[in-house]
């Protein structure tokens, strides 16, 4: 009985220092020493796949058991692979080029993965994002995405008309949403330009305050090429076929974000980091354009 009373008293009145131990554990988790961030992934939907008419498949989202990197598979039921974006001699995005190859020179302000510098890089002068270390990406792949947790989705989600996915984290986190350039824009040159957002399908993106990430990896910036990119090697065949534009938003405390529908192009991919967002410049998303016909979505 005395042991039981001692245990009850210890719970009501923890010994000196216990509160500090708990606080230290939280700090260690959020600093990435003890890796933790994503504690929940829950998606919902209704109706059918508008292309096939088949009932939607849930859950369509999952926390990948691997960490994000150059070469990571970005879609659950496709072999599509993340690669460095490539640029031609004029600084324009380059496609159908065997990877890897020599990049157009560019310098980026990249925050290392969870506080540790990527191989071969070190702290620099800190130009760009104030208060962050600078680590130049040697191969054009955003270093702030390397070694982070990520949520991947079924490709079919791009055909779900009523879909949402809520991702919950247990400490301050930065979310990087990788969005296919063709979203809401299926014109001939859409793959070369940032995606557009707005009604009726992607109003949620503008409402939630996602910002374009620009750390200097893109050699020539324009109003429609406003930041960093990740190449999509469709089928992992060694070519860059499409492009993800990188967007971010930050939670300053534990909480959740919710993603909505996205039509056309490859489905998005969500990378979650415990590092602050390494913005050199934070650009607003591209202005809404008239969404192209959903029937134009590719079957890839």
How large is the radius of gyration? Answer: 21 Å
Q: Distance N terminus to C terminus?
A: 66 Å
Strand segment count: 12
What's the shape? globular
Which structural class fits the helix and strand makeup?
mainly beta
SSE topology string: HHEEEEEEHEEEEEE
Helix content: under 10%
Total count of helical runs of at least 4 residues = 3
Low-confidence stretches: 3-11, 102-138, 289-300
* Major β-sheet profile: 9 strands, antiparallel
The structural domain count equals 2
Mean pLDDT: 77
Brief overview, please?
By secondary structure, the chain is mainly β. Helices cover 10% and strands 25% of the residues.
Which short descriptors sum up this protein?
single chain, 300 residues, mainly beta, 2 domains, 9-stranded antiparallel β-sheet, 3-stranded antiparallel β-sheet, 12 strands, 10% helix, disordered N terminus
Architecture blueprint of SSEs:
Elements lengths: L1 H11 L5 H13 L7 E12 L11 E3 L17 E4 L64 E5 L6 E10 L3 E8 L22 H5 L3 E4 L14 E5 L8 E10 L3 E5 L9 E5 L7 E3 L17
Antiparallel strand pairs: 1-5, 2-4, 3-8, 4-11, 5-10, 6-9, 6-11, 7-9, 7-12, 8-9
Q: How would you characterize the overall build of this protein?
A:
This protein is mostly beta strands. It folds into 2 domains: 1-30, no CATH class; 37-296, no CATH class. The protein is 10% helix and 25% strand. The strands form 2 sheets. Strands 2, 3, 4, 6, 7, 8, 9, 11 and 12 form a 9-stranded antiparallel sheet that branches. Residues 3-11, 102-138 and 289-300 have low confidence and may be disordered.
């Amino acid at each position: 009985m005395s042991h039981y009373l001692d245990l009850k008293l210890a719970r009501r009145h923890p010994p000196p220092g216990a509160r500090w131990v708990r606080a230290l554990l939280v700090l260690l988790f959020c600093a990435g020493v003890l890796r933790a961030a994503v504690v929940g992934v829950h998606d919902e939907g209704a109706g059918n796949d508008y292309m096939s008419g088949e009932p939607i498949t849930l859950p369509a989202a999952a926390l990948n058991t691997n960490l994000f990197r150059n070469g990571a598979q970005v879609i659950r039921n496709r072999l599509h692979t993340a690669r460095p974006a490539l640029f031609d001699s004029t600084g324009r995005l380059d496609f159908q080029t065997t990877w890897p190859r020599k990049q157009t020179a560019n310098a980026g302000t990249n925050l290392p993965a969870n506080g540790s510098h990527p191989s071969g890089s070190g702290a620099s002068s800190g130009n760009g994002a104030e208060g962050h270390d600078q680590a130049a990406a040697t191969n054009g792949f955003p270093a702030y995405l390397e070694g982070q947790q990520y949520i991947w989705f079924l490709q079919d989600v791009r055909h779900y008309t009523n879909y949402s996915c809520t991702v919950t984290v247990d400490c301050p986190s930065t979310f990087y949403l990788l969005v296919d350039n063709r979203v809401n824009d299926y014109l001939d040159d859409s793959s070369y330009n940032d995606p557009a957002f707005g009604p009726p399908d992607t109003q949620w993106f503008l409402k939630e305050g996602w910002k374009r990430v620009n750390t200097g990896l893109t050699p020539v910036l324009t109003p429609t090429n406003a930041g960093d990119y990740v190449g999509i090697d469709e089928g992992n065949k060694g070519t860059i076929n499409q492009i993800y534009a990188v967007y971010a938003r930050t939670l300053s405390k534990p909480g959740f974000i919710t993603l909505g529908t996205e039509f056309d192009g490859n489905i998005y991919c969500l990378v979650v980091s415990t590092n602050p967002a390494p913005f050199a410049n934070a650009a607003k998303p591209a202005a809404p354009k008239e969404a192209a016909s959903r029937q134009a979505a590719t079957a890839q």
